[in-house]
């Protein structure tokens, strides 16, 4: 493919996965991510070694992912919020087995069956591990179709490098919207040796075992400590964020994904009114860009956290800045998206009080 | 001349099973078959949750340990990754016939070219002897202390009978390991189930009636008798489906 | 002549080999192995017919049979 092409976010992600060398996709239909599966069902059978399989459930799909991941090949699944809850068992096993995989969550409103409109209400679930036990996923939060493409490729690389699950934390808006996308600028994907993979012993080596069971607590503790050493490297090396108009900002919006797009409009409008507001947009929500926020707290008077949920990331912002400055919450939930005016009103309200909290 | 020695399909790790538990026999049969068919080097096994969770320590081939009931889905991934892999699951009755029923039925429906070894001992062993989907009517367990009352908790699941109605299933046989004759038949069935996979025939499942002396509260020898007198009448041995000779 | 050997350290004394032997020459010893189990052994090697029934029923791969 050359030049720019108009594509839906869900389809662009699928194509990016194929470009990253992913040849195995397992999924189950759920709105608003079904286009990922539909696209894969069209493309993968036409590619050498390509396997698309619609599983009997999200639970089965994530376990098929485990099967392929254990053989060392790149593999992905995608779903939306209720489906991710079903996959959370498998996500925990992926972590316990130190298997790399890519999981996409095109979020919709919850809890329960919730709705089918865009949401960011799975932030806690995604950033706190996403299943039982001590673990993390690398969680990437794109805010455009083009970024969905780049982060999908990056996500596979990170997963392989750190033997972790990478989650693309998108939402219904990004999944459904069409934008021009370029596949030319994608960096070449890195390949990693996987001596642990199940490839058959050929009766030439000892069996490889992929397993998450350790009944000896000392063994399990050491296992978890080793895993967290890797997580520390991820926190050190892989944090991604974007700053917008932060040079002289007195107020800082923190927003990711689609919330950051709306916030950008609100910031421009506020600037026209003379309010010095900028934005720090986490691209990795785990690892969270703690350092840049902590430093910003020295110059910024107040923070505003814009989210499509009841206020989840705000806890990470408060932790990151160690409560040095007030953090306000500006949110819509249940599938509602805050308008630029809604955010602008909040900015004006906070600026009017001018750091007096 | 050696008449009988331990197969190289098993590692040297001592089995953790209770004395007289016939899991050990079934492990050995699977390992012998892998060796005899010359596929140890490309075999990848999927261990379940339950007593046989440690199967990954015993089979002398690559192994992955699956979540409870999910082995057929994990095996599907392993097989679809490379069709040259010889992929098997080793699952107990709770794993396969309760929590993993959907994965079992749909792997069969897809005619997934894998081999499933299903060990039915009518009880949850690892957790200390609770009622299983295959616990017999009237059978006393930790969670059916007055005997399984089918009017309240329903009837046992007969896996071979159930799967025989699934078009995708290719080969289904129920065997037992309660005596030498039956052990030999069990091995032949297991061999066929792997040969089917090698020949690309598709989903093959061997249900093996097995004992649990500890949780049945019987001696190993009495357990073999109990299996014969109680399990075999309810779970008749034999081939429930075999279309492996038919052309697709 | 048939020869049956028992890896006594692997034996759990379950006795399935004892009941499987058609010649009734496999018995549990009185002595215990390191794990505390009474181990199986053969009482009359010369009576063995190398049928390997004992080994077939052994869940722990304790027994090797030669002839």
Q: Largest sheet of chain B, described in full?
A: 7 strands, mixed
Count up the domains of chain A.
Answer: 2
Q: What is the total tally of β strands of chain A?
A: 15
Instruction: Provide the gyration radius of chain A in Å.
Output: 21 Å
What Rg of chain B is obtained from the alpha carbons, in whole angstroms?
A: 17 Å
Distance between the termini of chain B: 44 Å
Name of the CATH homologous superfamily of chain B: Thiamin diphosphate (ThDP)-binding fold, Pyr/PP domains
Strand content of chain A: 15-25%
H and E string of chain A: EHEHEHEHEHEHEHEEHEEHEEHEHEH
Assigned CATH architecture of the largest domain in chain A = 3-Layer(aba) Sandwich
Total of domains of chain B: 1
Taking pLDDT < 50 over at least 5 consecutive residues as the criterion, the unreliable ranges of chain A are none
Assign a percent range to the helix content of chain A.
Answer: 40-55%
CATH class category label of chain B: Alpha Beta
Q: What is the assigned CATH homologous superfamily of the largest domain in chain A?
A: Thiamin diphosphate (ThDP)-binding fold, Pyr/PP domains
Shape of chain B: globular
Look at the helices and sheets of chain A and give the structural class.
Answer: alpha/beta
CATH fold name of chain B: Rossmann fold
> Tell me about the biggest sheet of chain A?
7 strands, mixed
């Amino acid at each position: 493919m050359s030049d720019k092409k108009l594509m839906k976010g869900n389809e662009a992600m699928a194509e990016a996965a194929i470009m990253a060398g992913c040849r195995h996709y397992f999924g189950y239909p759920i709105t608003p991510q079904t286009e990922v599966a539909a696209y894969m069902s069209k493309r993968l059978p036409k590619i050498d070694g390509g396997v698309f399989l619609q599983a009997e459930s999200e639970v089965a799909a994530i376990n098929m992912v485990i099967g392929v991941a254990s053989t060392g090949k790149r593999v992905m699944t995608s779903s939306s919020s209720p489906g991710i809850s079903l996959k959370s068992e498998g996500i925990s096993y992926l972590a316990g087995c130190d298997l790399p995989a890519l999981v996409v969550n095109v979020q919709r409103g919850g809890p329960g069956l919730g709705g089918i409109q865009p949401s960011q209400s799975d932030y806690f679930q995604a950033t706190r591990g996403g299943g039982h036990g001590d673990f993390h996923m690398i969680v990437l939060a794109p805010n455009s179709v083009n970024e969905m493409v780049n982060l999908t490729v990056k996500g596979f690389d990170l997963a392989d490098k750190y033997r972790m699950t990478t989650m693309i934390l998108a939402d219904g808006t990004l999944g459904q919207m069409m934008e021009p996308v370029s596949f030319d600028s994608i960096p070449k994907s890195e390949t990693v040796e996987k001596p642990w993979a199940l490839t058959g012993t050929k009766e030439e080596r000892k069996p490889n075992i992929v397993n998450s069971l350790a009944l000896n607590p000392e063994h399990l503790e050491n296992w978890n400590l080793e895993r967290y050493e890797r997580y520390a490297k991820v926190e050190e090396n892989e944090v991604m964020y974007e700053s917008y108009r932060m040079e002289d900002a007195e107020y800082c919006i923190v927003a990711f994904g689609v919330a950051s797009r709306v916030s950008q409009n609100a910031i421009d409008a506020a600037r026209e009114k003379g309010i010095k507001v900028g934005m720090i947009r986490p691209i990795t929500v785990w690892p969270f860009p703690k350092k840049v926020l902590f430093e910003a707290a020295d110059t910024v008077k107040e923070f505003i956290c814009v989210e499509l949920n009841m206020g989840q990331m705000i806890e990470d912002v408060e932790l990151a800045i160690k409560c040095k400055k007030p953090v306000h919450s500006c949110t819509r939930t249940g599938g509602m998206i805050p308008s630029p005016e809604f955010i602008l009103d909040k900015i004006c309200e906070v600026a009017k009080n001018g750091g007096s909290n | 001349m050696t008449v009988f020695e331990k197969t190289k399909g098993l590692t040297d790790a001592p089995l953790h099973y209770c004395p007289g538990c016939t899991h050990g026999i079934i492990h050995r049969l699977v390992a012998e078959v892998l060796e005899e068919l010359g596929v140890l080097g490309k075999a990848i096994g999927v261990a379940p949750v339950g007593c046989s969770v440690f199967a990954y320590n015993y089979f002398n081939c690559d192994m992955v340990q699956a979540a409870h009931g999910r082995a057929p889905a994990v095996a599907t991934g392993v097989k679809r990754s490379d069709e040259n892999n010889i992929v098997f699951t080793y699952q107990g009755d709770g794993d396969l016939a309760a929590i993993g029923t959907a994965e079992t039925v749909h792997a069969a429906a897809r005619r997934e070219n894998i081999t499933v070894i299903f060990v039915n001992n009518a009880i949850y062993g690892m957790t200390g002897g609770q009622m299983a989907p295959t616990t017999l009517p009237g059978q006393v367990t930790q969670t059916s202390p007055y005997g399984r009352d089918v009017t309240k908790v329903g009837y046992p699941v007969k896996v071979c009978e159930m799967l025989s109605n699934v078009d995708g299933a290719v080969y289904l046989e129920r065997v037992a390991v309660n005596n030498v004759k039956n052990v030999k038949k069990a091995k032949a069935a297991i061999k066929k189930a792997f040969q089917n996979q090698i020949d690309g025939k598709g989903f093959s499942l061997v249900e093996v009636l097995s004992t649990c002396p500890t949780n049945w509260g019987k001696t190993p020898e009495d357990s073999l008798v109990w299996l014969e007198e109680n399990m075999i009448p309810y779970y008749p041995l034999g081939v429930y489906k075999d279309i492996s000779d038919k052309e697709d | 002549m048939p020869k049956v050997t028992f890896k006594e350290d692997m034996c759990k004394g379950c006795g399935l080999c004892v009941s499987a032997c058609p010649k009734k020459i496999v018995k549990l010893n009185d002595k215990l192995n390191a794990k505390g189990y009474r181990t199986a052994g053969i009482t009359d090697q010369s009576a063995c017919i190398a049928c390997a029934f004992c080994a077939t029923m052994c869940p722990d791969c304790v027994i090797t049979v030669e002839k």
